[in-house]
Design brief:
Blueprint lengths: L23 H11 L41 E4 L1 H4 L7 H13 L2 H4 L3 E3 L25 H11 L3 E7 L17 H11 L3 E5 L8 H19 L4 E4 L17 E3 L8 H11 L11 E3 L12 H13 L4 E3 L8 H7 L2 H7 L8 E4 L4 E7 L5 E7 L5 E6 L11 E5 L4 E5 L2 E6 L4 E8 L10 E5 L5 E2 L4 E9 L5 E9 L5 E4 L4 E5 L4 E9 L7 E12 L5 E13 L6 E3 L7 E3 L6 E2 L14 E3 L2 E3 L2 E5 L2 E6 L6 E8 L8 E8 L2 E10 L5 E6 L5 E7 L9 E10 L1
Helix pairs in contact: 6-7, 8-9, 9-10, 9-11
């Protein structure tokens, strides 16, 4: 779980934006108890004796088990936490407004049905009878009135609690531990259809006891009211819930909390992908809620987020305030063809086919025998991502139908599935063997060779390739490469052909000269291939290309923190220069400190992170002293890697917070680029604040 770190030498920074006390509260209470001391009230209120279970009611067994017919496809809906946390705008008006928009914007028709409240919906203390009391300021009419409003729209209503003495926010509300049956009866009486059950302030009580007790309480309450309640286990993957969750709940968090950044989304995706075999109808891996529309990522990155959650058969819980959403946000969230991948009744989670060099292929078997195929580009520049119909599990066939679910185009291929994918982008396809393939136009792939950075002031040379992946010809093919205003781009070899037969390709050389004064950076170009099918249909394939201009470091020794990067990504906030990673805002870190050793120069990162530098073949060595920053407390693991072009030049192995700063030295002779990469140590992303102290290039 991603929590706010603590340091003995400085107060913990405010962190209302994340669940800071998860596990930490339980560990504190456990240590105090072991020492014979009373736990302070802020950590754990005195726990009442566990209430006895009510007498059995007709229907369920004494220890009811799933399945119960709920969540046969991944749940879809809304949760307020990612957009509001516990701020004042989380209130009755917001919840009703979301329900209204579900209907007005077609989200209900697209499959979204749950409108869920997260933490802070109740007062901080129970009433004299031990009952939960809705916050009268946020919800003046009470929770049942809000649930009734949601139900009147034909939607379902969800609430939040925690399997501990209190919930997770610093103000928070009472948790469900030792109140499971009483709380469940309240939930059912209010008309709750969904319970998210967190893991904060759990007092060290066995996780199976805590989560199964609430399961049984929900079953008993449902039997009385006839209202089934979907049960979402939010224990952050701490106890490997994918191995036992299907007997307890309908979905289980596999990771810590997501935040609205590329690094967080990518890290969580990578943790969830290997768990495909555990998901299926009635029980789903949950990599946390969607961040689409919250503003921390680009439209391309949000499409990747939505595509990968869908191919992973993940619950789709909107986490943005739809009252403020842009048309692009609604367009992403409402793509019914992508939603259909997530909601396929076969219930298979997509599995990784390949992932070499950050070029991912993930395939999901569908109920109709087709395959959904995600071609995902993790890197910071356009990349060709390719596979075959056979590799994704389709039978041998003469031709295959290929539907691009974002571009809304359909064509045929002889078996190759390939595309030039934008940086951080995903092409999502639905592919099937089809005897009628010849009635469809050929899929034409276009792209440029990945070019090394060019020195500022020089012209860039590129080569484009246009390939006919089908069995029929593309006629009247012409290719154009365009750039920003003022750029001079010309073809140096033929850029058109009357006919491009199936399986053939056209390669064209290009010269691209930027206007005087163009500085270092990556500049987007656009490659367009226009053609017609044998039936006369006019078609266009448009893909991104890029030229990167850079300045090599000066002769001598340069600190990495004094140089510009070609690209960078970080798992929590930005990469900091000469400071630790800190929290999400830029510039909020502390002095870089590893095992008490302070570094005045260096980079503060958080797994998963990457910083790429242009060296132009002019540098010989990279050196640094690396380790987990002391602000991580006693948590966090990381692996530090140095890459020279495509070669791993150095790696530390797994380091943790008991590790002193470790010297790293890498031979980068002749390399055009050097990448500094940090991954987690294999235990999930948890306070992986990773420092590159005294990071230097010798050129």
């Amino acid at each position: 779980m991603r929590r706010t770190p603590t340091r003995p030498t400085a107060p913990t920074p405010p962190s209302a934006h994340l669940r800071a006390r998860r596990v930490a509260g339980a560990l504190t209470a456990a240590l105090l108890c072991a020492a014979g001391l009373a736990a302070p009230a802020a950590v754990a209120a005195p726990a009442p004796a566990r209430q006895p279970a009510p007498a059995p009611v007709p229907g369920p067994t004494e220890r009811p088990k799933l399945p119960d017919g709920l969540a046969l496809t991944p749940p879809m809906g809304f949760n307020n936490w990612n957009s509001t946390h516990c701020r004042a705008e989380f209130n009755e008006a917001m919840v009703k407004g979301i329900a209204d928009l579900f209907v007005e914007k077609g989200l209900k028709a697209a499959g979204y049905e749950y409108v869920n409240l997260d933490d802070c919906w109740a007062k901080p203390e129970r009433d004299a009878a031990g009952k939960l009391v809705p916050d009268p300021v946020r919800f003046p009419q009470g929770i049942k009135a809000v649930a009734d409003y949601v139900h009147a729209k034909g939607l379902k209503f969800g609430l939040y609690s925690s399997a501990g003495t209190r919930t997770c926010d610093s103000v928070g509300m009472p948790g469900g531990l030792n109140h499971e049956y009483s709380d469940a009866e309240q939930f059912a009486g209010w008309g709750v259809d969904y319970l998210k059950y967190d893991n904060c302030n759990n007092q060290g009580v066995d996780h199976m006891l805590r989560y199964t007790t609430m399961r049984d309480a929900l079953k008993a309450a449902s039997a009385k009211t006839g209202r089934p309640i979907l049960y979402s286990l939010c224990e952050w993957g701490s106890y490997r819930p994918w191995e036992w969750g299907k007997d307890v709940g309908h979905m289980w968090r596999t990771t810590g909390d997501i935040n609205d950044s590329w690094g967080s989304m990518l890290s969580i995706m990578k943790q969830n992908l290997p768990l495909a075999k555990y998901a299926g109808p009635g029980g789903w891996n949950d990599p946390d809620m969607l961040e689409v529309g919250n503003g921390g990522m680009t439209g391309t990155e949000y499409r990747t987020h939505f595509s990968m959650w869908s191919i992973m058969a993940a619950p789709l819980l909107i986490g943005s305030d739809l009252r403020k959403a842009t048309p692009e946000t609604f367009e992403i969230l409402s793509n019914r063809e992508v939603i259909a991948v997530d909601q396929d009744r076969l219930g298979k989670q997509g599995a990784v086919v390949s992932s070499e060099g950050g070029r991912w292929v993930v395939a999901k078997e569908m109920a109709d025998g087709s395959r959904a195929v995600a071609l995902f580009n993790e890197t910071g520049s356009p990349q060709r991502v390719a596979t075959t119909a056979g590799s994704v599990g389709l039978p041998a066939a003469t031709g295959y139908r290929v539907r691009d679910l974002w571009r809304k185009t359909t064509g045929h291929t002889a078996g190759t599935l390939a595309a030039t994918v934008p940086a951080h982008g995903t092409v999502l396809l639905r592919v099937s063997a089809d005897e009628r393939w010849a009635t469809l136009p050929p899929v034409v792939e276009a792209g440029t060779d990945t070019a090394a950075p060019t020195e500022v002031g020089h012209g860039a040379e590129l080569v484009s390739t246009v390939a006919d992946l089908g069995r029929t010809s593309a006629f009247g093919l012409s290719v154009r490469l365009t750039g920003p205003a003022g750029w001079k781009i010309r073809a140096t070899t033929p850029s058109s052909t009357p006919e491009l037969p199936g399986g053939e390709r056209l390669r064209t050389g290009w010269s691209a000269v930027a206007p005087p004064g163009t500085g270092p950076g990556s500049y987007g170009l656009t490659l367009t291939a226009s053609y017609r099918s044998a039936a006369g249909q006019r078609l266009t394939t448009t893909v991104p290309a890029a030229v990167r201009f850079a300045v090599a470091p000066p002769a001598g020794v340069s600190y990495a923190s004094d140089l510009g990067t070609l690209s960078s990504a970080n798992g929590w906030g930005p990469i900091e220069k000469d400071l630790s990673n800190g929290e999400e805002p830029a510039g909020d870190g502390r002095p870089l400190t590893v095992g008490g050793q302070v570094f005045t120069k260096g980079l503060g990162t958080h797994a998963a992170s990457e910083a790429e530098y242009y060296t132009g073949g002019k540098c010989a060595t990279f050196t640094a002293r690396v380790g987990l920053d002391d602000e991580s407390g006693d948590r966090g693991t990381a692996v530090f890697e140095v890459w020279a072009d495509g070669r791993k030049a150095a790696s530390t192995g797994v380091l943790d917070n008991s590790s002193a700063a470790q010297a790293v030295s890498a031979d980068v002779s002749g390399a055009q680029t050097v990448r500094l990469v940090v991954t987690d140590g294999g235990d999930g992303v948890d306070h992986d604040h990773a420092d590159w102290g005294d990071a230097k290039l010798n050129c």
